[in-house]
Fold this protein.
Amino acid sequence: MSASPLVARGDSELKLHADVLVVGGGPAAAWAAWSAASQGASVVVVDKGFLGASGSAAASGNGVLAVPPEERERVIAERSRVGQGLVDVRWLERMLECTWQSMPLIEQWGYNFPKLDGRPVRNSYYGPEYMRVLRKQLLGMGVQILDQSPALELLLADDGSVAGARGIRRQAHTYYSVQAGAVVLATGGCAFLSKALGSNVNTGDAFLMAAEAGAELSGMEFSSQYAISSALNATVTRGVPYGWATFYDASGNDLGGIVDGRRSETFLPKALLEGPVFAKLDRATPEVRAVIEKSHFIAFLPLRKAGIDPYTQLFPVTLVLEGTVRGAGGVRIVDDDCAATIPGLYAAGDAATRELIAGAATGGGGPNAAWTISSGQWAGAGAARFAASLGPLARQRKVRGIGGVGLHKHQETRPSYDADRIIRGVQDELFPLDKNFFRTESGLTASLAKLDDLWQELSQDPRLDSVRDIERARTAAALTATARWAYRSGLRRRETRSLNRRLDYPDIDPNQRHYQVTGGLDQIWFRNEPVRGAAPLASASARALETP
Amino acid sequence: MIELVSTSRCIGCDICVKICPTNVFDAGAGEAPTIARQEDCQTCFMCEAYCPADALYVAPESASSVTVDEQTLSDTGRLGQYREILGWGPGRKNNSDQDTAHLLRSLRGPFRR
């Protein structure tokens, strides 16, 4: 392991100006940048990794909820049912329309969709190729991309609006700052460094930065999404092939788990809490194999590398936490431009709450992919308009960094915290199925006591000797903050509504059909917001936490 | 995790250094990049996808480091496997049009009556 050299400060800091700054490097960031640039704005994108390889979309393939008009009524009814009362139908409709209109653009930019009867079918993508095409398009439009440049804090202007960000160029070993008319946060959600496919760049950065600016979060209790993976790999989180699996215990007994013709959602977590679980895709016919090997090649790649034939050989499986990435919580947005509650700040993709289109359920796959395309464009255009409204004033504003925890050393002699230890401490509370998948008041309360202690520890000075130290110190803060919002929200929602699975409150409570808005750092606050325009649940008394 | 940068195959382009989402590599001055921060590797396989020389190997094990043998990996077609699936690289045809996700809905699930 080589230590990176010390970070140079002062004169060597890169200083840029732009109308719109987009923070992040996945599809939501790319669509936001495209949209802002299309409005004539100058755009800088900063990403901790590489726009093209960063995030959960690039590292896989995805379905996209791109639905032709004649099928929308059915899809809206289905998504509203799954979202358990928290879907806002107006937002779902506008997402479906925007996504449907946008898919042909991807083709124009060079993506080669599969054909059916000679016509392109534009409702899924291979991630690496999709993101390669988006990057090429942005560069062609003159968008400036700073890769390997994690943002560390937002800049606030003296007029009270968000006006840029400051971060570190981790391969140039210098700080940078981008002063901008408006900022789009598109850094993804938070999977707590679980290694769920491609998501270790998604560390809740947007939540921490937004909260420091005084913005609000919503739906953070919907942060308990897990996905199945082979245990040897414990990374590739693609469930579809397992639809044709049989699950066995260590003695080779079929564990069953089928309720009403489908696998119970709680079957696998319960089985894994009992002991090791093995899978074999022995129900996949040759016809099925031909499809899933091409649609979900990434699920087969680790198995092929390990020399496992999943159709004939048993292999151990596990559940990997995807947190809010395939959950639903995020920065609260308050208008059709995906504006946050602070002027100049916008959120898109998994950084924003997806309750509006996914409700209390996972937006995993198709809905979230459609959300990146549509929310990215709305946020990018909204940010461009906000920047334009400032005119030349934008560059004259005085700005200051507003990041706090994990950023600054106060004295050389103060003790410093161990970021790796704090990260492990957060993971110890967030990863276990019996703490996060199945939640209880006593469990959440015990975890929060530990998470609050970790937050307290973060008030010590960070160690900032290398670029990795600087990044890691701030990541520890973002993970701890996100975990505290997630569990406090889960504790406060005394019901089981989709992803917030409370063993002590196993039913939906019609009186809790609202959004939980939260924020604050040392002191976390809450407020309820009503759901607008969503259809009421068909059967509110239905037992939500099914028992196989 | 990333286990191999083949010095015999590497052409020193440093693309893996530039594209790694978690900054695992350090550029080697005129030589092959080094795996400088293996513990930060998230096993996303993106470096394999981007390596024009099929010089990288990411082992499927994401939680522990394993020993690999370059000759065996080469003989069993495991170097460049991901690029082959994607159809990335000279002389290959991009495979994005081979995506079958739209056919999933037409498949009968095994448990439905």
User: Anything to note?
Assistant: The two ends of chain B are 42 Å apart (CA to CA).
